[in-house]
């Protein structure tokens, strides 16, 4: 049963991330800002889930491992950096990395204390 | 935003890819534990995503979204990484910083190498 929940949560998380990217493109912004958004929002939510002690059970599989795991992404984050450096946008690359890392850990902490 | 037939197909691809990527990630977590799992899925996933993005520049595919945004996007994860990073920082601040820098650097390098090896002859600008 846990596999089923992870699969459904994962499908939903990935679909939501794709929608976030499409919205960002629709707004005329680069899709990597959507990656930063999902990583920060997902970090905030997993921080809240950790504080609530959701460490096992169906909610853990569906929401934490499945949905938040798939909603956030490290590979797209890493590849966004490759693209930015390829375009020689060094300062944006630096800002983007800082935003994801410092923003991500801050968002986690915020979710954790709230 | 106008939702067309294509959008539904794209969303379906991402959904199915996301299901598979998440299940694979959990399978690895069961074998290795969640701490080692993060290194494995994020580095390997970044390498494969870089490779596929390079490859799809040469050769168009109808199923690009299934593999890239869906499967690899979901296989790798940022939320569990920040959770683990928070634990590392609580234990030891400096090694916590090194943890995050190493993860980011290794995943970037993996994506970069995969991309360069598979994108054909176009010159690297960076």
From TrEMBL, chain A:
Reaction catalysis annotation: fluoride(in) = fluoride(out)
Record has Zinc as a keyword: no
Annotated InterPro entries: FluC (IPR003691)
GO molecular function: fluoride channel activity; metal ion binding
GO cellular component: plasma membrane
Record keyword Membrane present: yes
Gene Ontology biological-process annotations: cellular detoxification of fluoride
Transmembrane regions: 31-49, 61-79, 91-113
A Pfam family hit: CRCB
Chief location of this protein within or outside the cell: membrane
Known function: Fluoride-specific ion channel. Important for reducing fluoride concentration in the cell, thus reducing its toxicity.
HAMAP family recorded: FluC (MF_00454)
Name used for this protein in its record: Fluoride-specific ion channel FluC
